[in-house]
Design brief:
- The protein contains six helices and no strands.
- By secondary structure, it is mainly alpha-helical.
- The longest helix has 51 residues.
Length: 226
């Protein structure tokens, strides 16, 4: 039980993620799309002709939607500003995408440790006839929050990849619309991350703390080691 308490305390202390991922400046180059790779997931995977056609159609639809959703149509001044600055920032977009993928992976590992620790506690309590309904409910809610975050993060990663397929000097409106979408998605990611982190560090942690005494008592009666 001592090991379980240590693990639970450690994982609750984890800082789950940081989301300063999208550069504030306008950023993207006129990088061309590689017609033999899947730019939204594994960039080394060779696609079949059918898969490639599907990916290209999906990408085109997303970019068309982004362009149509541009909040403010570009005037000559904004167009010039974008087209003269965007190429220089391709590295920042690439770094943002890499960072997003790393953060997503680390978040998943951190949450898995928390979930496993709490589930282990629940299993011990249930094995000794304790009522774990409240803690199970709170763990399930945290999983739902984690799923929301994962969904938002995946969408953000796709948009960052999409940005790198746009020729921003030839099509600044599509670039700007896609950049605005990425910024909106980044805010959704930050909100979802805060919601999950807050819930885990307050509600779920409190529920675990309040039921630990039952687990301690159960282990002692069962002759468990500390």
């Amino acid at each position: 039980m001592k090991k379980l308490r240590l693990l639970t305390g450690t994982v609750f202390a984890l800082s789950l993620m940081s989301f300063n991922l999208l550069p504030a400046a306008y950023a993207i180059s006129n990088a061309t799309s590689d017609t033999t790779t899947d730019t939204s997931t594994d960039t080394t995977k060779t696609l079949t002709a059918e898969e490639l056609a599907k990916k290209q159609a999906e990408l085109k639809k997303r970019l068309d939607d982004n362009k149509a959703g541009l909040k403010t149509k570009l005037d000559a001044t904004n167009t010039k500003r974008i087209t003269t600055k965007c190429k220089a920032s391709i590295a920042k977009i690439a770094v943002a995408e890499t960072s997003a993928k790393a953060v997503s992976s680390n978040r998943g590992k951190a949450y898995s440790k928390i979930s496993e620790a709490v589930q282990k506690l629940i299993d011990k309590l249930k094995a000794n006839g304790k009522n774990t309904a409240d803690l199970e409910s709170k763990l399930l809610y945290s999983k739902n929050l984690s799923d929301v975050l994962a969904t938002n993060m995946a969408a953000y990663e796709v948009t960052l990849a999409d940005l790198q397929t746009v020729d921003c000097t030839a099509d600044p409106s599509t670039f700007q619309g896609t950049l605005e979408k990425a910024r909106t998605q980044r805010e959704a990611v930050k909100t979802a991350a805060t919601d999950l982190r807050t819930y885990i560090s307050t509600t779920l942690k409190t529920a675990v703390s309040s039921i630990k005494s039952q687990a301690d008592d159960s282990v002692e009666k069962a002759g468990g080691t500390r």
